[in-house]
C-alpha cells in the first residue's frame, strides 16, 4: 500500500504563520525520508489557524527543499480561477520540478462567503460551470484542444517535459462521476465526509472512461489519523485537534491548542457528543492498530493509496505520527 501526506498547514497556539509554514516544509522533507509517495498542501482563505492560502507559493518552496517526493495541491479551488492561469502556474512548477507535480482540483470555497466574493465573481455560477472548467484545464495541460476551439493556438507556457498529473478531489458521487468521465484520478476525502465512500468509489471505477489509451482509474482515500507509541498518547494528541475544530466551528480565534489547553477547555454536552463523533471518524492509536485500520480502509475502498492528514499541537508529534504510520505499514 502506498502512503501520502495531506497538509492543511495548521498554526498551533504558540506559533506564527511563518513558523507553521516552515514546519510544513520540514514535514515534506520527513515524508520523503519516511517513504511517502506524495505531499499535498491545502488551500484555505481567511480561516483562523490555517496558514496556506496559496499552495503554488508553498510548492515552490517545498520543491526546492526536497528531491523525490511528488508535490501538489490538495486542492486548487477551481471555481475561483480561470483554467488557463492554473495551467500556467502548475506547468511552471512542473518545469521547475520535472515529473513531481500533481494538480488536485476541488470545488469548495475554502473559506467564508466574504472571502469567496473577494476572490472571484459569481462563485456559485462557477461551481455550476465546474465540468466545463475541468475539461478546459485538461486541454491546457495536455495542449490538445480540438482544431476549431477558440484556444487552439494558446499555450499554457512554459510547457514542461512532463505534464502535471491531474486529480479530482471530492466527497460525492457527483465528483466521482466527473473524475471518471474525464479519465482523471480520484481522491476521496473520507476524513471530511459522512457519505458512503465505498459506493462513491465503486461509481467512479465502473464509470471510468480513459482520456488516453493507457489511462486507468486511480484512487486515493484521505483519512484523518494520529499515531503514537500508545493509544493513550495518541488520544491525548487527538484532543488538541478536536477541541480546535470545535472552537473554529463556534467562530473562536486561535491556533491548535496544546493538550493541556484542550483538556482545560470546557465543552458542553452537545460539544462532547460532537467530539465523540469526530473521534469515531478519526484513526487514533498505536502503530499496529493504525496500520491495521489503514489496510482495512484501503481494501474496503479498493484504494491504490492512503493519504493521511494529521493535526497536532506539537510539530514533533506530527512528524513522529507520520513516521510511526510509515513504519507500521512498510515494516509490519
From TrEMBL:
One of its GO terms (molecular function) is oxidoreductase activity, acting on paired donors, with incorporation or reduction of molecular oxygen. Residues 1-300 form the Luciferase-like domain. Pfam families: Bac_luciferase (PF00296). One of its GO terms (cellular component) is cytosol. To bacterial alkanal monooxygenase alpha and beta chains. PANTHER family: LUCIFERASE-LIKE MONOOXYGENASE (PTHR30137). This is LLM class flavin-dependent oxidoreductase.
Amino acid at each position: 500500500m502506498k502512503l501520502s501526506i495531506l497538509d492543511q498547514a495548521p498554526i498551533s497556539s504558540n506559533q506564527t504563520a511563518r513558523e507553521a509554514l516552515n514546519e510544513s516544509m520540514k514535514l515534506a522533507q520527513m515524508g520523503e525520508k519516511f517513504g511517502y509517495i506524495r505531499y499535498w498542501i491545502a488551500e484555505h482563505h481567511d480561516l483562523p489557524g490555517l496558514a496556506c492560502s496559496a499552495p503554488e507559493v508553498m510548492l515552490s518552496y517545498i520543491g526546492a527543499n526536497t528531491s523525490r517526493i511528488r508535490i501538489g495541491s490538495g486542492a486548487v479551488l477551481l471555481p475561483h480561477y480561470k483554467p488557463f492561469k492554473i495551467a500556467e502556474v502548475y506547468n511552471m512548477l512542473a518545469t521547475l520540478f520535472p515529473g513531481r507535480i500533481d494538480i488536485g482540483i476541488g470545488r469548495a470555497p475554502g473559506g467564508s462567503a466574504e472571502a469567496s466574493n473577494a476572490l472571484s465573481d459569481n462563485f456559485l455560477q462557477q461551481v455550476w460551470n465546474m465540468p466545463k472548467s475541468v475539461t478546459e484545464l485538461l486541454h491546457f495541460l495536455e495542449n490538445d484542444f480540438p482544431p476549431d476551439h477558440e484556444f487552439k493556438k494558446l499555450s499554457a507556457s512554459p510547457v514542461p517535459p512532463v505534464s502535471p498529473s491531474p486529480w479530482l478531489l471530492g466527497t460525492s458521487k457527483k465528483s466521482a462521476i466527473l473524475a471518471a468521465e474525464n479519465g482523471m484520478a480520484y481522491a476521496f476525502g473520507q476524513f471530511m465526509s459522512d457519505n458512503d465512500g465505498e459506493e462513491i468509489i465503486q461509481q467512479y471505477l465502473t464509470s471510468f472512461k480513459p482520456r488516453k489509451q493507457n489511462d486507468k482509474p486511480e484512487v486515493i482515500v484521505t483519512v484523518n489519523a494520529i499515531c503514537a507509541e500508545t493509544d493513550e498518547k495518541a488520544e491525548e494528541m487527538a484532543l488538541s485537534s478536536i477541541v480546535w475544530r470545535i472552537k473554529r466551528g463556534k467562530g473562536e480565534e486561535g491556533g491548535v491548542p496544546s493538550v493541556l489547553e484542550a483538556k482545560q477547555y470546557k465543552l458542553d454536552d452537545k460539544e462532547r457528543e460532537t467530539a465523540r463523533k469526530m473521534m469515531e471518524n478519526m484513526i487514533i492509536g498505536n502503530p499496529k492498530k493504525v496500520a491495521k485500520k489503514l489496510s482495512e480502509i484501503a481494501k474496503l475502498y479498493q484504494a491504490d493509496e492512503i493519504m493521511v492528514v494529521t493535526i497536532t499541537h506539537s510539530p514533533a508529534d506530527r512528524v513522529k505520527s507520520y513516521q510511526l504510520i510509515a513504519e507500521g505499514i512498510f515494516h509490519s
